[in-house]
């Protein structure tokens, strides 16, 4: 027999999983709840809903249409949150611009995504000014003056608040195909240009529903839910700020958007608004510790999800000593991002074991299947010993790299998304990342292309051959280390190695985070059996101390 | 411009929202977790997954196909849970048979759903024996002997455990259209035969994800999550046991299935397995109190969601006094069922206000929109005063009453699902059910058709005219009250009124819960302005005490 299908009543409502519907219950239950921006302003959800309509109206006024890319360059703000909703809800595509990329790469990503409308915070006017001549598709730039009175740049179509105030809050949002693309952003890999990933309405709604899941049963890893006050500490241009702004809004929680991150202000906002939940990379957590020490901020009861790079056991213990409730998660740009979360055993009381559990990559959340495979896609055992590439299935994985058929095929080879991370999986499902296939350095939440960096270093005076690897760093997660074979008789200095790097930073060809602090001299670079430079061996040799899993 | 769609990589995995995928993370994370059946047996999830495969294999062996209805008549058991998964996962339709209906109505529902395979617990052999001659579609009956050794009935194809043991655990479950029907069951309304509702794979997955949502932030209404131990106290044939078996399995929780409800055993199981979460109608909660008093069971920390009918403030206070964490929810057969949940303000400390909040119908969960409307579908204000019919949109509402186009049209008139409940909505979204359009009496979780009952009463000796209304009852939620106009000079007795009711019970034409305990004599029945019998007025007159919202 064929599958059975119901015959819906003629007027039965067909419910699409579109981002618009994430607001359904918040509209009913949280009209008077507050959304705060820095120490500058706050408004109610009622006003927020109106401003979503206003943003859509003003964007339509400057030419936005369904299917068009609208790009945002802003710090974490209520405006960004408005764009998270308004842009996809009108059927356009929200592009979250990584403003930390070198300007030519920012331009590359805007052009590749065919961004036609830009929303730009005044801090990024110099960046936009520099690249605007190379952005042929852009037809409108909305300036975000952020409370200041200065003149608009000549290329600006108008100012966000002024245009918003003049626009109608009653934009006629409608239902449409849940498989339409809602968001796009770019991820920097080992080689070549940044790659575009996309997520559909359906994917983001499902991600929101699952990432909203429980944890409430475990004292060691309490849930995020009603009554919490949320402040993001992962930039909103990084993988949807891990999807949490969508969850917090769906739940109608009080939200605090901190603008540009300033450790003292973060602590003050956390205190003033009784923030209970945030998420960040380890580097930010360390900054919070420092700021708390300086300001006397009590961190007790602040729940933090840590991702982006490894949370060391020392960092985890320090956070717990200060009364914070931390746990680590694993995900990547290609995965929306949520894949797995640490989940301590409910009954566990041994602090060392709790910390050990909290600092793994955790276990998969609902609807996610993870496997480890060998090169031939054979599934390896979940015995805590076998190492293989971590591959994934979930409803919210990017279906491709935009416009890059070859990379897309590689990404989805064999019907599973390839993370390029090497992992073990315990019998209880705990995933531990052991190594990675791609040679990229994650520092303070930013990625440095090690191939590019070693090409630069190789041109430095006195260098015969060079390689760059990531080494664990207590503050930044990872930092680059140059491993150098000198020319005969040459003396290598850090300044000499950094000379070509500094030049590239000045040109905007590489991020300033690439500047080296450390190098090692060797007689020859280690090689694998097939003659490739053995980065894995170098990473092992030069890591300063054993570290927890790199998530 | 058209909406934008991505071009998926050729091998990108298209993830359907099918029930099979609810097992994805549990398979990774909970292989050694336990599922318990009464004080009889327990097994691991690993075995459970194998038994899902075995059940599918054995069903295929007796002729099950995609699209075919497989009906279950069992108490709450691990077997029922296996059927919750195996039947939909193989593309068949799981019918949850309401075994409390009168036998002719059970037969009606099985025939209407074209059930071809029955799984029947031995307690229901007499029922099946009585109706089997009137079930032309049935081609196989699997007997559930539940550990006893007796002979199989002659009509049985085989015994569940024996067939399961002989079947292969490796059934090749495959992905298919998420909009295929997964489950069906029947709801008894005011008039006519029971009506069939259906839910698709997509609907059940979405319901599971949302019902799995948080609450963890509120001390007064803690979440259900990892670390909890689950025991259903709503029958699994009632609206998917409110969907919780799907959630508990997705999360890989320890689960305890109590079989036929016996208050002492429920308390013992709760103690032995440290049950932390259940859900039930108020009547069951009262039974638990009694059993706890008799056995000395400490109820502290047991979280309970109450629905099906009103939780009175007195009952709520009593539960809290005993250390239970209770809250009420609202839903119905047509809604899968979750619509709304009580949600006390996180900061509320006043016990009276907490109890008042916990006993409303609460606020809508994510993706649900509720409105109150007048007869012309005009939306009424959410001011806590205006009363209108509660109408709903959500992704998991039944699209129709199976095979009943007229009732389906009425259900979905104007593009909203009509609950036939009259409600107010507060500005903060709190829904309070005030009355209802449909004249049905909910008693101990069962429904009595008041129209049918009053037709019976009207035939009693000495009765000129009669109406039957629901009145609140502390133990049963509601009980029927007959309002009677005697014939001139006639004396009315309870026995006389019950005589035709008893006859109908004996015939299986109406449930035994319809037997009357109370009646009122009036000179004439109250009428509305258009001459209809005013049941609303009678309910108001004869309610013994003011009650909280009837959910």
UniProtKB/TrEMBL annotation, chains A, B:
AMP-dependent synthetase/ligase domain sequence ranges: 28-401
Alphabetical UniProt keywords: Ligase
Pfam families: AMP-binding (PF00501), AMP-binding_C (PF13193)
GO molecular function (one): ligase activity
Domain of life of the native organism: Bacteria
Gene3D superfamilies: 3.30.300.30, N-terminal domain of ligase-like
Domain AMP-binding enzyme C-terminal: 453-532
InterPro entries: AMP-bd_C, AMP-bd_C_sf, AMP-dep_synth/lig_dom, ANL_N_sf, ATP-dep_AMP-bd_enzyme
PANTHER family (alphabetical): LONG-CHAIN-FATTY-ACID--COA LIGASE (PTHR43767), MEDIUM-CHAIN-FATTY-ACID--COA LIGASE (PTHR43767:SF11)
NCBIfam families: PRK06187.1 (NF004837)
Protein name: Fatty acid--CoA ligase
Naturally occurring in which organism (per UniProt): Sphingomonas oryzagri
